[in-house]
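Hey all, quick one. A colleague (J.T.) asked me to put the zinc ion job into the tracker so the inputs and the structure tokens live in one place instead of scattered across chat threads. No bug as far as I know, just bookkeeping. Sequence used:
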Amino acid sequence: MKLIECPCGSGETIQACCGKWIAGKKGAPTAEALMRSRYTAYVLEDVDYLVETTLPASRTRDLAESIRDWMSQVEWQKLHVLKVEAGGRSDTEGTIEFIAEFIGPEGTDRHHECSLFKKVRGVWFYAAALQ
Ligand SMILES: [Zn+2]
């Protein structure tokens, strides 16, 4: 196995970090772990993982297509997790504010979002963008 640094910037190898949640059948244990693994899935262009980790009620009909669309237009550079509120192992909700740097059609750009995560029957999902 090749040891490459995880794209989420944790400093761990991908196998010890987001790769565990993306490749495994086990869900990420916290909202932050899920958030980071979703960023890494964007980098790896793993559309299925992104759809599966979206709250079923939040999945739009064209979700996979819009994810693919976005992926084809941007090259992800770096993730900055700014603020984590709740979303721990004993919580059922959490919010995470982050900035994801990318190179898009207009050059270097950044996506700033505060995301809401919800846990349903022990599994964390991305629920919505709050801002
Ligand atoms: Zn990671």
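Adding what we noticed when we looked at it: The chain has a mean pLDDT of 95. Residues 6, 8, 10, 17-18, 36, 40 surround zinc ion (CB under 6 Å).
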